[in-house]
Design a protein that fits this description.
- Its EC number is 2.8.1.6.
- This protein has twelve helices and ten strands.
- By secondary structure, the protein is an alpha/beta fold.
- Helix 3 packs parallel to helix 10 and helix 9 packs parallel to helix 10.
- The structure holds S-adenosylmethionine (SAM), 6-(5-methyl-2-OXO-imidazolidin-4-yl)-hexanoic acid (DTB) and iron/sulfur cluster.
- The site of iron/sulfur cluster (SF4) has 8 residues, from loops.
């Protein structure tokens, strides 16, 4: 079954962040066209209306099942369709995952995000990850999972296990989805997002820029995210990490100002969402990251590894936060 954006907008009874308006692509393009400093200023104002701009949410990622994915996403080092030299692994042991989660918590992360290189989980996978989720949750961390497309009932099982967030990205402009991914449709992603919402999970949904898209196509991606109703609680904006062996290894670099513009436009169109400055930070100078925080980013992936690629060291990130007078958002578990 596929669910259109309009149907998704209507079906939502719970409205954590009801979208105040329907965003047309041309309106979002107009934001991108603003003079750079006007755009950043406007985004900073919106940020301050809804958040304490000194607080940054910290999520640590762990790949619990790496490589050998049957999907052919052109950006991804874990796809079995590309030769990236990545070793396919079986699922990690619960004890090893818990060890990583404890370290993440001790270093100040509030959320632990677990990723698996699946098209979607099998019922037995859902049982296994449910055990893992419950154990991580009992440490007092928020939990997030990104396991691909979900079948009927799976989102409820994950919710019952203690999952707080499900990450499922729209990744690129719906109009060019099949230029980048050929093994599924944009509508399949919308269908899983509907199931995630329906189960009462919080939604983490974003995309990737720097995949040779045009500015109108970046606007199309942001429109597809901002028109989810309710809007996602968390919006990861990833800059493509170019991995040798993937079809996008030689993608053209995006100018840093265009990345900051994308963050600013996400902030303005999704005022109450946490906008995460996500993959690609390892290649971003501190001043560029500071500009992203000014433009409304208020979350990062924290820890020296993303799923399979490098991320800045925790020590460096703590020093950067100190220099910018930013502090980690605290999580207070209920009960
Ligand atoms: N297989 C599941 C899925 O695709 O939803 C979960 C894991 S997948 C690796 C999660 C997300 O990682 C993708 O949706 C994409 O946004 C991001 N990602 C993958 N490779 C990336 C890369 N090279 N650069 C930036 N982001 C990437
Ligand atoms: C998201 O939007 N970005 C993260 C997380 N959600 C799962 C993943 C980034 C992956 C970057 C490439 C890698 O390390 O394999
Ligand atoms: Fe598989 Fe997810 Fe990578 Fe696509 S992005 S190849 S679905 S792990």
């Amino acid at each position: 079954m596929t669910v259109s954006p309009v149907a998704l907008r209507r079906q939502s009874e719970r409205k954590p962040h009801p979208s105040a308006q329907y965003w047309r692509k041309c309106q979002i393009e107009a934001l991108f066209e603003l003079p750079f400093l006007d755009l950043v200023y406007q985004a900073a104002e919106v940020h301050r209306q809804h958040f304490n701009p000194q607080e940054i949410q910290l999520s640590t990622l762990l790949s619990i099942k790496t490589g050998g994915c049957p999907e052919d996403c052109e950006y991804c080092p874990q796809s079995a369709h590309h030769n990236t030299g990545l070793q396919k692994e079986t699922m990690m042991e619960v004890a090893d995952i818990l060890e990583k989660a404890k370290i993440a918590k001790a270093r100040g992360a509030s959320r632990f995000c677990m990723g698996a290189a699946w098209r979607g989980p099998k019922p037995t996978d859902v049982e296994k990850v449910s055990e893992i989720i419950s154990a991580v949750k009992s440490l007092g961390l928020e939990t997030c999972g990104t396991f691909g497309m979900l079948e009927e009932g799976m989102a409820e099982d994950l919710k019952n296990a203690g999952l707080d967030y499900y990450n499922h990205n729209l990744d690129t402009d719906p109009e060019r989805y099949n230029d980048i991914i050929h093994t599924r449709q944009h509508e399949d992603r919308m269908d899983t997002l509907g199931k995630v919402r329906g189960a009462g999970l919080k939604v983490c949904c974003g995309g990737i820029v720097g995949m040779n898209e045009t500015r109108p196509e970046r606007a199309g991606l942001i429109a597809s995210l901002a028109n989810l109703d309710p809007q996602p609680e968390s919006v990861p904006i990833n800059q493509l990490v170019k991995v040798a062996g993937t079809p996008l290894a030689d993608a053209e670099d995006l100018d840093w100002t265009e990345f900051v513009r994308t963050i600013a436009v996400a902030r303005i169109t999704m005022p109450k969402s946490y906008v995460r400055l996500s993959a690609g930070r390892a290649d971003m100078p501190e001043a560029m990251q500071a500009m992203c925080f000014l433009a409304g980013a208020n979350s990062i992936f924290y820890g020296d590894k993303l799923l399979t690629t490098e991320n800045p060291e925790e020590d460096g990130d703590r020093m950067l936060m100190e220099k910018l007078d930013l502090r980690p958002l605290q999580h207070h578990p209920e009960g």
